[in-house]
Batch of 3 targets.
Target 1
Amino acid sequence: MQELRIDHYPGFSEKEIARLAEDTARRFDCPDLLVIHRVGVIHPGEAIVLVAALSIHRASAFDAVRILMDYLKTDAPLWKKETGPNGARWIEPRPEDHARRLEAEKGWT
């Protein structure tokens, strides 16, 4: 891969990511979750996303971060295009990404 371009819909994407974070924070009893997701051109080895959780219990914080990362991969309104030596291609969540997220949700209900 030469680069990854992440596009978003300004205003909407941020609100939806904030909604996902608020829902996750509420479900895991985390007073706060921080999400920073880069957009634009990203080169190999560069960081893309940061998720941090504030919680009384570390297990809740770890679970919230893990599940929110799954939601960012499958549900966040971000569009990813990878460019490499064979040209460009759009990156979509894989079936296993959706399956992992659905498996994690079983503990929420």
Target 2
Amino acid sequence: MQQELALLGGPKTITKTFNRYNPIGSEEVEAAKAVIESGVLSQFIGAWHEDFYGGPKVKEFERACADYFGVKHAITVNSWTSGLIAAVGAIGIEPGDEVIVTPWTMCASATAILQWNAIPVFADIDPETFNLDPKSVEANITPYTKAIMVVDIFGQSANMEAIMDIARRHNLKVISDTAQAPGALYQGKYAGTLADVGGYSLNYHKHIHTGEGGILVTNDDAIAERLQLIRNHAEAVVAGKGVTNLSNMIGYNFRLGEIECAIGIEQLKKLGGYVASRQHVAEKLTTGLSGLAGLRTPVIQQDCTHAYYVYPMVMDVDLLGISRSRIV
């Protein structure tokens, strides 16, 4: 660089304040308005009834998500934290069971395990992708291990081929916490769809959002049924529905409303474009930063894509000659 950096007193390249990013357009406004005008803001009933599965927009959004991600079942919930709690319960985790998970994640990955009185066991991460290291996963398996929770941190899938192989050999279930990577591909399939159950966050700062919310995806009919039960007061439904597997059949109110689902239908249509936009910007950043000593740009696995929830970099502050906090 020929001139002094702005943070050291040099001239600023950007001198204006940008408007807050807003991915909500007129389509979402009209969709939400139509629901409000209908007067049906939610149609769930917490008893065995035709509305146990929610109203028309819930069902439409779930069908759209299942089609988009190429899975048999998509189940909406009111937050991705709720989704993780439901996923852990749906695979049959019980008190004292161990679930291997990464420590390099938002707290809900681990607390969803604790919710069922199970034990999160932390495995190490790959230093390049920051996702779970399959070798560390296998090293942490004990007779009490029942599942692996894989977090697709920052926008890239974990090494699911290796992790699913470990799971098959040890008879373990796999949950894919793909909150930050909707639209990312792993060997031609969407991240989050390769596990027994996975899903995505619809929190306001994610790729697409409904304010708050989450989407669970699975190809397993039994897991899908249990997710639907846990989402909507399972204990009040088991008799009427004729449920005989009562393990963990204590449910919650994890239901997503009609307004959020109407917004989600429109947001889902834009996911591909939003991901492509992030990838375009990330490629320009990678090209522009590639010659800077002391900075490692994102490493992407072969046959995979990155959805860039964030653009993760590793800094060598000695080579850069400046502290991390100063750069931030």
Target 3
Amino acid sequence: MLSLPQTAEYALRAVSFIAEHEAEGPVPVWTVAESLGAPQNYLSKTLNQLGALGILRSVRGARGGYLLGAPASEIRLASIVEPYLPPSEHRCIMGRTRCRDDAPCGAHWRWKQVRDVSSAFFAELTVGDLLPAADATRVQDRTT
């Protein structure tokens, strides 16, 4: 089974949580952290990074927190997880230093298919696709 780095997983889950709850107003970091079971300081840095990327926007003040930076239907999962993926996702799973299409190891072609399907999953799905239908409509209406 493929897995994401922990920060990528937290980022994805946090953005989804914010999308589900932003109709109530900006979602505070502590609320997201508590819901995800993540350390607040760690998650705060991740949410700030997502803000810098335009995926989220922050609202300051006593009732501050985070909102989506664009409609849920426009935020691709790839834009959330890619900043937290290792630089070389194309390394050989068998550990070979020279594994390429023109010099493949025994697992190369099958692993490449898995990688391509995984990449397509994140590129095609949006945050809106993760929301229950009623939530997705409400978030879409609020952000347009």
